[in-house]
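Section 5.1 Outputs to date
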Amino acid sequence: MKVLGNIVWWLCGGLETAVEYFVASVALMITVVGIPFGLQTLKLGQLMLWPFGSRVVKKPTSGCLNMVMNVVWFFVGGIWIWLTHAFFGVLLYITIIGIPFGRQHFKLARIALTPFGREVFLNS
């Protein structure tokens, strides 16, 4: 069931947001300062391809460096990816069939704003 959900997810905006994350990570990895941001967006891009069956756990030991990186990320790329998730979430909530996928977009929108201090476990 997870595989079917993930395949339908690709058609409901998952593939577009994954491409957005991968393009952002390549652009961020061009500079040395952007490498930590690029690595985190790569993890989130993988999560966008397989969100059903995966989980994101908030690290209890995340410190103030993660907070600073989340603030920088919010202005650099987080707000734009959040807008993409919000757009697809609202679009999918219009249909009855798309409500579970819209809910998933809204969950991932929160993660898109503050990705640092979180750990991604794919297909667990």
